[in-house]
Specification:
By secondary structure, the protein is of the alpha/beta class. It has nine helices and eight strands. It has helices at about 10-30, 35-45, 50-55, 70-80, 95-105, 105-110, 140-145, 160-170, 195-210, and strands spanning about 35, 70, 85-90, 110-120, 135, 150-155, 175-180, 190-195. Strand 6, helix 8 and strand 7 (about 175-180) form a beta-alpha-beta unit. Helix 1 (about 10-30) packs antiparallel against helix 4. It starts with 10 loop residues before the first helix and ends with a helix.
Length: about 210
């Protein structure tokens, strides 16, 4: 459950905050200390009025005529998103996609660490070496609760997705990144972000038609 004192921020705003954070990271890498709302909005692909409205959800920032302090705003957004420290994540389903995600080293830079993986077939031959341990499904609940894990990546076949998602929820997971091509039926307090590559390609296909 979310703390009652925490403001309710629209989901689309949260998505844009992630984009702002990456734009600010690029500015910091280039040694830029301040940025105007117009410049940051342009880099993020939004209107400056939308940017100011989004940032107003969690405080007042910026100095008229000077803009935003890049480091200060980066820190505030990271704190709001919960990525100012490494967030532990588990992955369930160590097939080809799961292996690729486990091998990706960019998550830690963004504030997330996949600390373990779980699969129903521990003896399956896998062609990549990964640093994370792989456990059987019977170890998932105890591991998640012992390590205080609240986020999981789901990369299991569609036929198993709902059952595994139920297990994740019963293990204390409240946020799921779902790569399985089905809509999960879960309690409303559990946040699910669906990643369906086929749908994204269909969307692109529509826009490239002549």
């Amino acid at each position: 459950m979310k703390k009652s004192s925490r403001p309710i921020i629209p989901r689309k705003t949260i998505y844009r905050l992630s984009i702002y954070l990456r734009c600010l990271a690029r500015l910091r890498e280039n040694g830029i200390g301040t940025v105007s709302s117009e410049a940051l909005a342009k880099a993020a692909g939004v209107k400056s009025t939308q940017l100011r409205k989004d940032l107003a959800c969690f405080g007042t920032f910026g100095t008229r005529g000077l803009g935003y302090d890049v480091t200060e705003l980066s820190t505030k957004i990271a704190d709001e998103l919960g990525t100012s420290r490494l967030q532990p994540v588990i992955l369930v389903g160590v097939g080809n996609l799961g292996l690729a995600l486990l091998s990706y080293r960019g998550f830690e830079k963004e504030g997330f660490e996949i600390i373990a993986a779980f699969d129903a077939e521990l003896r399956r031959k896998r062609d990549k070496e990964i640093k994370q341990p792989i456990y059987g499904m019977d170890k998932l609940r105890e591991f998640a609760q012992t390590h205080g894990v609240k986020m999981a990546i789901l990369t299991v076949p569609a036929a198993a997705a709902q059952e595994v998602a139920n297990l994740l929820v019963n293990s204390g997971i409240t946020g799921i990144l779902n790569f399985s091509p089905i809509v999960l039926s879960l309690p409303e307090e559990v946040i699910v972000n669906n990643v369906n590559l086929a749908i994204e390609l269909e969307n692109l296909s529509y826009f490239i038609q002549e």
